[in-house]
Amino acid sequence: MSFTPPPYPYARLDPIRALAVASAGGALDCSVGTPIDEPPAFVAEELARAPGVRGYPSSAGSAELRASARGWLQRRFEVAVGPDELAVCVGTKEFVASVAGYLRLRSADRDTVLYPEISYPTYAMGATLAGLRAVAVPRRAGRLDLDAIAADDARRALVLWSNAPANPSGELEDFAALARWGRAHGVVVASDECYADYTWDGPPASILQTGSEGVLAVHSVSKRSNLAGARVGFYAGDPQLVAYLQLVRQHAGLMAAGPTQAVARRAYDDDQHVEIQRRRYRERLEILAAGLGRVGIDAPLPAGGFYLWASRPGTDGWELARELAERAGLVVSPGEFYGAAGADHVRIAVVQPTERLAAAARLLS
How far is CA 277 from CA 21, 36, 118, 274, in A? Predict the structure, then answer.
């Protein structure tokens, strides 16, 4: 066997979970960003109708879903996206994991994926699965340090991944600088914006506000609408890139299920349920950040997203994760999961009920 897949990161948390189960408050799993709040009421209604269940759904996405996604982009970012600049994917994780391999078929002379050094692990894994080089880009003052990219890496790059609001750190990004760099180097800039609705510092932003040339924005209903199980997202941007990827993905048989496309259409037409969820996440972030701060753990409120990126001087991420499990039943992710540069942090997803997070905060102190 020439390739042995590494253990899935969250499978390594079993010893932490055992400590949490034995704690006074029982286990409270904040390790994965899995929404637990109810999705909008219209979801059950739409699934009961089961539209599109008989025939094969469109790989590019139904005309109705794509129109709703374009309408949401216009409302949220004031960006006008044409019908040929957007297509649907089966949740965004599979898109993140597969797009580098598809771009390699298009640009055989390039073999490198650039990604943030502290980030969601699938950016680098997508390169590995495609037999490509994964090169981490450091951050400076919260932004990707484009000056740190070596000339040879830029010449060989297929794609530069950005993620803002960032998972796990919640940082935002200078999209104009990213787009300029990508266009100057002929590198696709793919911007994972799935937490955009949970931007706390200023209005939400998208790389599409810089124009569509050479860029892709990736969005999902998983976090926005508590619909992670529906597996529906979309990518939008450069019409030549979208057309190419849509056709390749159609050949690969990648298509979101018809009923869940109908649900996603309704979700993108409605903003009220997102405002309710925003209030929930903001309250949870504030409660848990304050509780952690009272016991000397630095957990600043993020600029976006629903994670706390927490640390304490002199304590590594695994040690801190064990302590939080023992003291308060919190199951959190050691920062090493998101790159070696994050080894002294933990990521805490505030996806559990508010009252349970408040109880964990009290147990800490």
Answer: 28, 11, 26, 5
Beta-carbon count within 10 A of 323 CB: 19
Residues 277 and 339 in one domain: yes
Q: What percent of the chain has pLDDT over 90?
A: 86
Residue 328 to residue 27: CA distance in whole angstroms:
8
Kind and range of the H or E element at 228?
none
The model's pLDDT over 322-363, given as tens digits with 9 standing for 90+, comes to 999 999 999 999 999 999 999 999 999 999 999 999 999 999
Residues 19-30: b if buried by 16+ CB within 10 A, e if exposed? bbeebeeebbbb
Q: Summarize the confidence of residues 154-166 as an average pLDDT.
A: 98
The H-or-E segment that residue 145 falls in is none
247 and 284 co-located in one domain: no
CATH number for the domain spanning 30: value is: 3.90.1150.10
Euclidean distance between CA atoms 343 and 73, whole angstroms: 36
Of 244, 269, 294, which residue constitutes the final position of a domain? 269
| 330-340 tens-digit pLDDT | 999 999 999 99
- H/E stretch holding 120 reads none
What is the tens place of the pLDDT at every residue in 199-250? 999 999 999 999 999 999 999 999 999 999 999 999 999 999 999 999 999 9
Q: Are residues 204 and 307 in the same domain?
A: no
Q: Is 290 exposed, middle or buried (0-12, 13-18, 19+ CB in 10 A)?
A: middle
Residues 323 and 174 in one domain: no
Q: Is the pLDDT of residue 102 over 60?
A: yes
Q: Read off the CATH number of the domain in which 253 is found.
A: 3.40.640.10
217 shares its domain with 76: yes
CA distances from 281 to 36, 51, 59, 100, 319 (A): 11, 32, 33, 32, 26
**β-pair type (345-349, 333-334):** antiparallel
CB-based contacts of 349: which residues, under 8 Å, 6+ apart?
30, 31, 32, 33, 34, 306, 307, 332, 333
